[in-house]
Design brief:
This protein is an alpha/beta fold. It contains 43 helices and 20 strands. The longest helix has 46 residues.
């Protein structure tokens, strides 16, 4: 026995050593494979890839090997990393999907990917999309189309190489992107998922938001890239641009205005907290009131309890937004525009409909100060100039020319110095919004006095008395208007001569009125005037020998030149025009354009390569984008871009900038702590067989039987399904239905939105859709169709999950709305409820279901399906369509439909005929004649009751004479004659 035991122990030890050796070999093989991938990636970046900074290279290598979610700081872009990853998979042997991508981002990737034959857009026809999927490459596709194609198996899911998800912070469990990823992971366990986001604050809202997002993305890794990351600092620190901060004090009136506006905000914040002591309002502070995201913070906190708030609270919320707009206008706008905006709130109508801030002493001081900024003590029009205007003019005309001269003196070689001075001067001015762009464009081209005078004419501000500084403006306006008219007349070859008497008018008031009218028409078209960017040139009258002094040309133009609009730039290639034009160029642009989004500044810097940047307003993202741009250029210190930051020190503008920095830092610290402590399940990547069953509530609903009957055999079990109209995929409900383990069948159906069982049809309406459908009559027609073809039609009224679940104030259904609501709103709600009551009277079979959210609706559908048969997709498509008439007999046999709908509706109006016996009558009687020939006993058998049969027989056979009028009543004709013909 001992020998056998020794042999057994030796064999076990040998097998253990062998297993350990195999494990070590496998681990070594994995390390070798990983090392090979890294070497291949390094070679790709060196030969074919887009150049990357150090942190971008690290980000690229991390994503290449793992599926992960990448969260970047503002201004730290991931576009180049994703572009390199797309280049790797840009081949017909792969199929890569890019979802949740904006138009500007999609255009950026398409432009920079060289192999355009492997880049595809989603086609309109399904057959074309199927062919496109089989071609492979990169597919930029909308998520709604992707979900439908995945459900209909139009796309080869097993062949998908991977999915890129942009703006990952938006991926919640009810969105279409999460639905598509779930369908993808159900049948593809090999493909990758790589997600990107640059909104770190979005991951801090709610409990465990980042974990939920990662769960919806099916990723286990989280990579965080804040600005204080050591790799980012090493990449950007050596190439920091030269920065000059110009702190401009505000005028005394602006300081007082800011103080009084803050006092008003502080008063309203205290009022709203005292009125709502039991509501969580920690984020409602004066500091947050002046930040950009104040509206979103306020909406997130108050939306769910909005119906419980008093009318005074609602007025205070609206007034806080008004005061914030006034604060922004005071800082960023001019004195005339601010005064015009403030005049709207000093009307009797507004005074009766606000929280009462206009009657406070601080408000009265605000009104007085705003007027003093426009008119002097003699009540003459002399508006106060913006302090930043002078600073901007000094930068353009003094600081930049001096900087060019000083830099030229440092160059010893004459040829290099001359070449440096001959370089075209390109200046980029960055602003907060299109209005500020327009303001600076007009200020630079017209001058401050003329611009403010035009603003007064546009906003109907009196300019009857002008100060000495503005008296020359009307003459210039009249001359400019005359020159414009002469030019238009010269350009017109043929046309009406015009009214000669009108042309001879020389009265100054008429000239100014005409100018104001023309300006108002131009102002009406917002898109035409308030654009995201403007381009100006600088020109100067020079002697002929000035061309010989080319070395000093740009500097002299900057010092004494005239700014002019460069309209040719609008319809031409910016790179070509910049290259050909030798005059100094001034670009005015917003930090973020509506068309190009956050990447607009990156593209502008790459296209024009400005030598000087003037930040008229402060922005965290823009500052970091400039830092990244310089790090990519890797130039010497003298050749780097020079940044001038103009800021009002110790103001709301500076505080808003510091608050945004603090918020981002706190969000990253919270995200780093969450990553350190969170537990990620092994199955979260969705690549194991049981993952979907664990993440999804999978139930075989059709196997359940009502009444405690035994379940069907496993071979007969059918997966529960719900037929969904294609248009419903714009909502979140199909995703949540699928999440509960119910298959979603997308079809184009003409009756209803959801077919739950062969008998249950659901028409889903949101509150806005419900009101519109009731007013237009469309809902009535939809109910007619549902009641004709389905035994149990349902009208589902679904509320927004982020809004209160109530139809009226204080949950009153038939009341007028309660204390705070106006009588007009109450009567309007009563009108809607009355229409709903009429709808239920006309359709007794119709059931109204009120749902607080799509989550509740999905749960309701699951409960309605328990123990019921599954709907037939073919029948659902044919119902209500033109094909129904040709297959009436077959459909009647299958579904028990009542075919002659008009006769059915007529019969139900007769006494004694109900919804229960009308089908039997139509089957037993061929026509109405046969029904009238039935005896009362035969009708009793058909109708199922003696009383019902008697009612029907009497209505068909007894002559019903009109009732005789009472002898005391006068005949109607006599009444009419006695009353005359008056109506």
């Amino acid at each position: 026995m001992s020998l056998e035991d020794d042999d057994l122990d030796a064999a076990l030890a040998c097998s253990a050593d062998q297993a350990e050796n195999e494990a070590n070999k496998a681990e070594a093989g994995k390390e070798d494979a990983t090392l090979t991938q890294l070497v291949d990636a390094e070679e790709f970046l060196a030969t074919e890839g887009v150049p990357l900074l150090e942190y971008e290279k690290q980000m690229f290598l991390d994503l290449l090997l793992t599926d992960a979610l990448v969260v970047c700081a503002k201004g730290i872009s991931y576009e180049r990393v994703m572009l390199n990853l797309l280049k790797i998979f840009c081949d017909n042997s792969t199929l890569v999907l890019v979802v949740n991508c904006s138009e500007s981002e999609e255009q950026y990737y398409k432009t920079n990917l060289e192999q355009t034959e492997h880049i595809h857009e989603s086609a309109k026809l399904s057959t074309e999309r199927e062919r496109t999927y089989l071609q492979g490459g990169i597919q930029f596709i909308s998520t709604r189309i992707l979900v439908v194609d995945l459900l209909k198996n139009r796309i080869p899911i097993e062949l998908i190489t991977g999915v890129f998800v942009v703006r990952a912070h938006e991926i919640i469990e009810s969105c279409q992107e999460a639905f598509a990823l779930r369908l993808y992971r159900q049948r593809n366990k090999v493909g990758f998922v790589k997600a990107f986001s640059r909104n770190v604050e979005a991951f801090t809202y709610g409990y465990g938001h980042v974990e939920k997002v990662m769960r919806n993305l099916f990723v286990k890794e989280l990579f965080i890239w804040p600005r204080f990351h050591m790799t980012i600092q090493r990449s950007l620190k050596p190439f920091e641009p030269a920065a000059v901060e110009i702190q401009i004090p505000m005028t005394q009136n602006m300081i007082l205005l800011q103080t009084h506006l803050l006092d008003l905000m502080n008063y309203l914040v205290k009022s709203i907290k005292s009125l709502n002591r039991f509501v969580e309002l920690q984020e409602v502070t004066v500091e947050n009131c002046v930040t950009k995201k104040f509206h979103k913070i306020l909406q997130a906190q108050l939306d769910t309890i909005w119906h419980q708030l008093s009318s005074q609270t609602k007025l205070i919320v609206a007034d806080l937004k008004v005061l914030r707009s006034l604060m922004i206008s005071c800082l960023y706008g001019d004195s005339v525009s601010f005064y015009a905006l403030l005049k709207r709130y000093r009307t009797t109508e507004y005074a009766l409909n606000n929280s009462g801030w206009t009657i406070l002493d601080a408000a009265e001081k605000v009104f007085t100060l705003a007027k003093e900024r426009v008119y002097n003590r003699e009540n003459e029009f002399e508006p106060e100039l913006c302090p930043k205007w002078k600073a901007l003019s000094d930068v353009l005309r003094v600081d930049i020319p001096n900087e060019i001269k000083e830099a030229g003196k440092k160059i010893r070689k004459k040829e290099e110095r001359q070449k440096f001075l001959q370089q075209q001067v390109k200046i980029l001015i960055l602003c907060q919004d299109p209005r500020a762009c327009y303001q600076l464009s007009q200020f630079l081209t017209q001058g401050p006095q003329r611009y403010l005078f035009y603003q007064a004419l546009k906003n109907d501000i009196s300019v009857a008395k002008l100060s000495e500084n503005f008296k020359h403006i009307p003459d210039e306006v009249a001359e400019a208007e005359e020159a414009r008219k002469r030019k238009e007349k010269e350009e017109e070859e043929l046309g009406p001569e015009g009214d000669r008497e009108e042309a001879k008018k020389s009265d100054m008031e008429k000239e100014l009125a005409a100018t104001a009218a023309a300006r108002k028409e131009e102002e009406a078209d917002y898109q035409r005037y308030f654009r995201d960017s403007y381009v100006l040139t600088m020109s100067q009258k020079m002697p002929e020998d000035a061309l010989d002094k080319a070395s000093e040309l740009d500097v002299s133009v900057l010092e004494s030149g005239v700014f002019e609009p460069f309209t040719e730039m609008e319809n031409m290639d910016i790179t070509t025009v910049v290259k050909d034009c030798q005059r100094p160029l001034v670009f005015i642009q917003t930090f973020r354009s509506e068309s190009n989004g956050l990447g607009s500044l990156d593209r502008t810097l790459e296209q024009i390569h400005p030598r000087y940047i003037v930040m008229y307003h402060t922005n965290v993202t823009a500052i970091r984008q400039i830092e990244v741009y310089e790090a990519r250029q890797q130039r010497k210190e003298m050749a780097r871009v020079r940044v001038y930051a103009i800021i009002h020190s110790k103001t709301v503008e500076e505080q808003s900038y510091l608050t945004s920095l603090r918020r981002e830092k706190q969000a990253f610290e919270l995200l780093i702590e969450t990553k350190r402590t969170m537990v990620v399940p092994e199955y979260q990547d969705g690549k194991s067989e049981d993952t979907i069953l664990m993440l999804q509530k999978k139930q075989e609903l059709s196997s359940r039987q009502a009444g405690g009957q035994e379940a069907k055999d496993t071979g007969e079990i059918v997966t529960p399904r719900v037929i969904v109209d294609m248009r419903e995929f714009r909502s979140d409900l199909p995703c949540l239905i699928h999440r509960r383990g119910i298959d979603v069948v997308p079809l184009t159906i003409t009756i209803g939105d959801y077919i739950i069982t062969p008998e249950i049809c659901v028409e889903r309406k949101s509150i806005s859709d419900l009101i519109g459908s009731l007013n237009s009559g469309r809902l009535y027609n939809q109910c007619v169709q549902m009641t004709r073809y389905y035994a149990k039609p349902i009208l589902l009224i679904e509320f927004d999950q982020n809004k209160p679940f109530h139809f009226q104030r204080y949950f009153m259904v038939s009341g007028s709305g309660g204390g705070g609501s106006s009588s007009s709103a109450g009567s309007y709600n009563e009108d809607i409820m009355a229409k709903l009551q009429l709808l239920t009277i006309h359709f007794p079979k119709l059931r109204l279901v009120w749902s607080p959210s799509p989550y509740s609706t999905a749960q309701l559908f699951e409960e309605l399906k328990q123990g019921k048969a599954e709907p037939d997709p073919e029948v659902a498509v044919r119902l209500g369509s033109d094909e129904t008439a040709g297959d009436e007999q077959d459909m009647a046999a299958d579904t028990g439909l009542l075919l002659n709908v008009d006769v059915q509706e007529f019969l139900t109006k007769l006494p004694g005929i109900t919804a229960r016996n009308v089908g039997k009558i139509m089957r037993r009687c061929q026509n109405l004649r046969e029904l009238t020939q039935k005896s009362e006993a035969e009708l009793e058998e058909l109708l199922g009751g003696q009383a019902l049969a008697k009612q029907l027989w009497e209505i068909l056979h007894v002559v019903h004479k009109p009732a005789q009028p009472d002898a005391n009543d006068k005949p109607y004709s006599a009444k009419f004659r006695r009353g005359g013909r008056k109506m």
